[in-house]
Every structure is written in C-alpha cells, then in structure tokens.
Amino acid sequence: MIDTNFSGRNIINMNNEKSTHIRTQQIVIRKQHEAFRGAGVCTQIVRRIKNATSYLMQHHPDGKDQGLSHRDADKWLKRNNSALYAKLPSAIAQRSTQIVGQEWKAFFAALKSFKKTLSAFKARPQKPRYAHKAATVHIGRNGFKFVEGTLHFANDVLPPIKTQFRFSQNWNALVGDTVALEVRIVPKGNCFIIEIIYDESKIVEAGRFCRLLDKSRKAGIDLGINNLIALATDQPGVRPVLINGKALKSINAWYNKRVAKLRSQGKYAHIRAVTNNSSFGVQNINKNTNNILI
Predict the structure, then answer these.
(1) Which residue ranges make up each domain of the chain?
(2) What is the 3-state secondary structure (H, E, C) of the chain?
C-alpha cells in the first residue's frame, strides 16, 4: 500500500516567467509493501558505511594524527572493505560518504562561528555521532531513473515504485533535463518514507500539474480551530469556502490520550508508531485542504 503526500504547489505566473520551485513528494512504505524489506536492508548498510566513513575521518588507518577526508575515506572503503561497500550500488555508497563529509564540514563551520560569536549559540556544537539504528539513504540522480512516472533504482535494490508523476528521466540525466534531483529513503520506525526531491518548474514547463496565477485577483484567508480555513475571493463564480477543522482537533485529542496511556504502561516503543499514524492523518487532511483551495 502506498500513501502519497505532496508538499508545495504547482504554480506558474501569467507571464510564463521561469523559476525554480523545489518540492518533495512523500511515499509511505509499510510492512505490506514489496519494497519494505529492501528499504530496511539499504538503511542498515548505509548506516554501516556512514559509521565507517565517520570513523576514518577521525582516526587515520595508518595511525597518523589527522584523519582522512571523506573522498579518501570513500576510496579506502572501496579498496579495503569492498565486502561492505559493494553491497550497494556505487552511486548510493559514494553518496553516503559524501553526506558524512557534509555533516563534518557543517560541524567545523558551526564550531568556527561558535568561537567567534558565543552569544549566537545556546551550547557548543556537537560533532556528528555514529548511527545506532537505520540511517537515511540519499540517492543522487545517477542512482535512479523514471520511466513514465515509475521510479527505478540502480541494481534493483528496491522494486519499481509508481508515483503520481508522468515524466521520464534517464540515469544521471543532464542538469538541464533533470526533474527529480534526489531520492531519499527515510526510516520511521514501523515504516519507511520515500522522498522524491523534484524541480516543480520543470513539470510546469512540460504542461504537467500547471495552475495559472492571476495577479489581478485577490483572496482572503482566515485560519481558525473549529473552522480551519475561511476563504473568500473576488473571482466571479467562486463561492466562499469554509473548511471544518474538527477533524484535526480529533486527531490531536486521540494522539494525546493514546500517548498518555502508553507512557503509563511503559510501552515507549509503541509511541513512535502512534506518532507516525497521527502525522499521516494530519498530512492527509492538509493535502485535501490544499486540493480544495488550489
């Protein structure tokens, strides 16, 4: 079963001005889905690769004072620990080492800023930690392709996954032809989230999901609790819209009651699953609300 949630909108202005709109499509992979087991294997292997890379960046394998860079760590793993590195396509394994390098680069930049302006920080920046559970898989455009909206992974590490898109994109597509920029596999305890990072403007240029924005029209939106949204516009033929917000209140009340009961019973491992179910319900309501408004 696949649940799809969209964040963002597909908009192009009346003057056909080109712009970049980075959006994310989320696909929920539950235990019944054929990709669930493969996602679990990938996130565990990536965890081991990231931990090994982080260790090599802190401890040189030859005992030298300074550790390896993430590029040298990638080469060392490929040469000396091929049994681990080769378990995933090189595009995914190499991207994992790059992510670790970015994390350490961000840490040193934050540490440098911390030493200059202590008042801008609440505490000293902490160095990247080792992952003790499944880690997020980052896949660049050389690790996946799209065929009429179906997502295919390198070496078939996951079975093909259907999306709501209709575009096609080859392996390692040129920057000018790239719609999907990155794919992520995010572990969420009792499920996985496939995140597709894409450039919405490319879809609009191709005539997909295009909605025109008329700057001469106006709309007023009032946010509330019982009435989630009240919308009125000066566009002829469009009636005012009132969206019930009690469903969100009900989900929130159920979540608080359920979590309180689990905590009193000491079942902390179940709280994450309850949190995911609550989040999916909220995202579904927000998605339907966006569809009504847009």
Answers:
(1) 2-205, 220-293
(2) CEEEEEECCCCEECCCCCCCCEEEEEEEECCCCCCHHHHHHHHHHHHHHHHHHHHHHHCCCCCCCCCCCHHHHHHHHHHHCHHHHCCCCHHHHHHHHHHHHHHHHHHHHHHHHHHHCHHHCCCCCCCCCCCCCCCCEEECCCCEEEECCEEEEHHHCCCCEECCCCCCECCCCCHHHCCEEEEEEEECCCCEEEEEEEEHHHHHHCCCCCCEECCCCCEEEEECCCEEEEEEECCCCCCCEEEECHHHHHHHHHHHHHHHHHHHHCCHHHHHHHHHHHHHHHHHHHHHHHHHHC
- Specify whether the CB–CB gap between 134 and 44 falls below 8 A: yes
Q: Return d(Cα 38, Cα 167) in angstroms, integer.
A: 25
Going by pLDDT thresholds of 50, 70 and 90, the confidence category of residue 279 is confident
**Buried (b) or exposed (e) across 58-85, using 16+ Cβ within 10 A?**
eeeeeeeeebbebeebbebbbeeeeeeb
Q: Give the mean pLDDT of 219-234.
A: 85
pLDDT (tens digit, 9 = 90+) per residue, 69-89? Answer: 999 999 999 999 999 999 999
Distance CA 247, CA 134 (A): 33
> Residue 222: what pLDDT?
87
Closest CA to 5 of 281, 242, 294, 247: 281
pLDDT tens-place string over residues 169-220: 999 888 888 899 999 999 988 889 999 999 887 776 554 444 445 667 788 8
Q: Rounded to whole angstroms, how far apart are CA atoms 150 and 166?
A: 8
